[in-house]
Amino acid sequence: MQGVEASLLKDLFINMTILITFISLITQLLKNYNLEESTALLTKLFFGFLSGALGIVLMLFTMPVDEITIIDFRNIPIIMSAVFGGALTVYITGIMIALFRLMFFGFNTGALLGVVTALINTVGCWLIARTLLKTWQKWAYSTFFVLFASSFTLTYLLKDKSDFLKIMLIYWLSYALVSAIAYWYLSYNNTANKIYRRLQKESTKDFLTDLNNVRQFDLLLNNAVHNALEKEEHLSLLMLDLDFFKKVNDTYGHKEGDYVLRELSKILRTSCREFDEVSRNGGEEFPFYCLIVPTLRLCV
């Protein structure tokens, strides 16, 4: 294969490597957040900005088919931000891509249609992402929607129809393949990040009560003692132990005993101030420390 087809494949491959690299970067920067469940405004803004920046970089390495027509994978970041980010994220991404398409490549028919297509894809992917479909289905439907919308634009813009079928075939096959690879890689990284967050939490939290475990309590207590000595403050260390708790387990079973521990943990958390630390050292032992402030009450 020679000419425009070979050049198109080369540039689309470069686009794919940029896309995969950015997915790695984005998932690493946001590894502490569940993108599908997070409602934090800053997280969504940051995700939208990163996805928009990815679309812009993909356009910088675009494949010019003729004087006003370019082909790249800029719409995959729109799909990604719609499926995993939500409304605010996808609209930030879509608007950034649309504005860059217009400002960087100049005001011409191709740029104007590119802007319209980007906005249509943004709205379409957002509507698909709002459905109750499974995540992979949302991604698949969004991919086909983007392909159809972009194909109409390409069909109108391409004046030389001699290589039209070859270009469209390469575009469809490569786009579908790269979109599938991007979804697989993004899902893989999201799963790895979920495991990372779970292990990070389990290393500091008690699995039953979600209080600090003994390892985390020792670390926090050492820091608190050090700060109290430096600032000449007073620190109160208390130990709560449930007497005869074994009788609860023996009489009602361990399930009910676990329920008692969880409810007690809720009471301790709500009874303490924000800067007091409560932990569970195992069994029915609950140590906690309180910073003594004369004008305020202790945590118990």
From TrEMBL:
Q: Which residues form a coiled coil?
A: none
| Transmembrane regions listed in the UniProt entry | 12-30, 42-64, 76-100, 112-133, 139-157, 169-186
Q: Has the keyword Glycoprotein been applied to this entry? A: no
Q: Please provide the record's keywords in A-Z order.
A: Cell membrane, Membrane, Transmembrane, Transmembrane helix
Q: Which GO terms describe its biological process?
A: cell adhesion involved in single-species biofilm formation; cell wall organization; negative regulation of bacterial-type flagellum-dependent cell motility
Q: Which Pfam families match?
A: 5TM-5TMR_LYT, GGDEF
What is the protein name given in its UniProt record? Diguanylate cyclase
Domain GGDEF: from-to ranges:
233-300
Matching NCBIfam families: GGDEF
From what superkingdom does this record's organism come?
Answer: Bacteria
Q: Which PANTHER family is this protein grouped with?
A: DIGUANYLATE CYCLASE DGCM-RELATED, REGULATORY COMPONENTS OF SENSORY TRANSDUCTION SYSTEM
In terms of PROSITE patterns, this protein maps to: GGDEF
The record describes its membrane topology as: Multi-pass membrane protein
* SUPFAM superfamilies named among the record's database cross-references: Nucleotide cyclase (SSF55073)
Recorded hits in InterPro entries, A to Z, give: Diguanylate_Cyclase, GGDEF_dom, Nucleotide_cyclase, Rev_trsase/Diguanyl_cyclase, Sig_transdc_His_kinase_LytS_TM
Q: Name one GO molecular function term.
A: diguanylate cyclase activity
Where is this protein localized, as stated in its record? Cell membrane
> Which GO cellular component terms, listed alphabetically, does the Swiss-Prot or TrEMBL entry include?
plasma membrane
